[in-house]
Amino acid sequence: MWQTLKPNPRNLRLWQVGLLLAIFVLWHVLTVPGLVPPMVFENDQQAAFFFGEPLKVAGRIWRWFATDADIYSHLGVTLVETVLAFGIGALSGLAGGLWLALQPMASALLEPYIKALNSMPRIILAPIFAVWFGLGIASKVALGVTLVFFIVFFNVYQGVKEVSPVILANARMLGASPRQLLRHVYLPSATSWVFSSLHTSVGLAFVGAVVGEYLGSASGVGYLIHQAEGVFDINTVMAGILVLTGFALALDGAVGRIERRLMVWQPKGGESERL
Amino acid sequence: MAQGDPGRDADGSATLAARCTDPLTRMSPPALALSDVSCTFVDRSNPAARYTAVAGVSLHIGAGEFVSVVGPTGCGKSTLLNMGAGLLQPSTGTVSVFGEPLQGINRRAGYMFQAESLMPWRTALANVMAGLEFRGMPPADARAQAEDWLRRVGLGAFGDRYPHQMSGGMRKRASLAQTLVLDPDIILMDEPFSALDIQTRQLMENELLDLWQSKKKAVLFITHDLDEAIAMSDRVVVLSAGPASHPIGEFTVDLARPRDVAEVRSTPRFIELHQAIWAVLRDEVLKGYQQQLAVKG
Known about the structure:
Strand content of chain B: 15-25%
Number of strands of chain A: 0
Shape of chain A: globular
Distance between the termini of chain B: 63 Å
Helix content of chain A: over 70%
Oligomer: heterodimer
Order of helices and strands of chain A: HHHHHHHHHHHHH
Number of domains of chain B: 1
Number of helices of chain B: 9
């Protein structure tokens, strides 16, 4: 009996869903007032106050998406911020990395400053951006860009530095001009490095958007969470976190699809099938 | 006698004038001429340390001639080729291409590298098209020519494969097509088949000879395999062990063409040539080997 039930590649998905359900059930049992006698807290209301109740959280999410349907505009704002931050950050990181990798003197000159900017905790720039760009979308995008830029920048820089010298010499012998080398050798090579950092940078763009909203805004999922926190509505905070998590997973899945579409030329392990 | 032979005139300018009007020398300067070139590398981490890879090398390859260079490992064979390609500037001496001094990349040469040189982000077809594209040929024409060359090297059905989806032999064929599609007057080859197994290798050697036979380009072929060198070439040049390696022997291979690289190896003349060249090469190989041991120890 256990032989067929224990986790294996075929029923893996079932086990994953089961694990999720188990966590929610445990959460429910431990927080709903009166279900089990209080162990940590003094009275049975406190667990629900600190951790929320899964059924109320689910109700909140249901109202957001179905009955009230008022979360879409907030989600839209967060999505726009994320996409803009990612797009601008990735493109400028790509351009900056390409340029600097091909200019040894400039890269030697700027090296300590780039290192300093990278090691700085850039989240702390959020208040400054709020002052510069106001409480609208722009300040969140700016925060996301500073986070994404450096990830992409360093990957592209590394990618250009590690272009195979033989492939480079071959392209030159085939008659490539410096422009064509950039377009046909450096750029494709750097792109593969950008994609390897894409999952991280999309995640960071999202972090930039949500943290920016949390620190000061009038819309977005981060704003919703901040509002709920202000009135100690822990169920809404939890609901916001769950929505953000689902959203981030969806973004990551989309990135994975794009990556598979564009990077067909990259070798993948295990392409054989045992029949 | 003096007035009948302008070449021996005491007046230098007269000699030059006579040479220039001589139809034979004017029409056929060597396809690639390395004149007294040497190449010294500077160690990047230690600017005082220098290594002279080749010194005082003079090498002429006529148009349509197949010349092989053999030598012990690490003797600077590839350095020689890179100078001929214009990828490397000689420290002294000059390189000229069809009589013109070489500046920058050698536009009349195709180069087939020892290592993997296909662009991994392009399919076989796109790789073969690359050179034509760089030269500004319309994509439709480039595509037609590239497809034709892929068929010639036996990859007609594999144009949409990426390099990682091809075997080592297929990648070499694609490289060959990539080089030859540009119809270069000079073909430089750096141990192009050294990574292949012996059967594939002989197949490709024969294919290369067939292609060369029909087009008669100048070929400078670098190899460490003496059998390969003799079987393929018109002339074999032996380089001494490094540092400062230089030619120490030159042998004309008078085996009849067309040749089959596998069959020609058993002819008496081949064995004779092999013995003669190996007599020169052997000491250098031993020297090169001992130097490598000394560096390691």
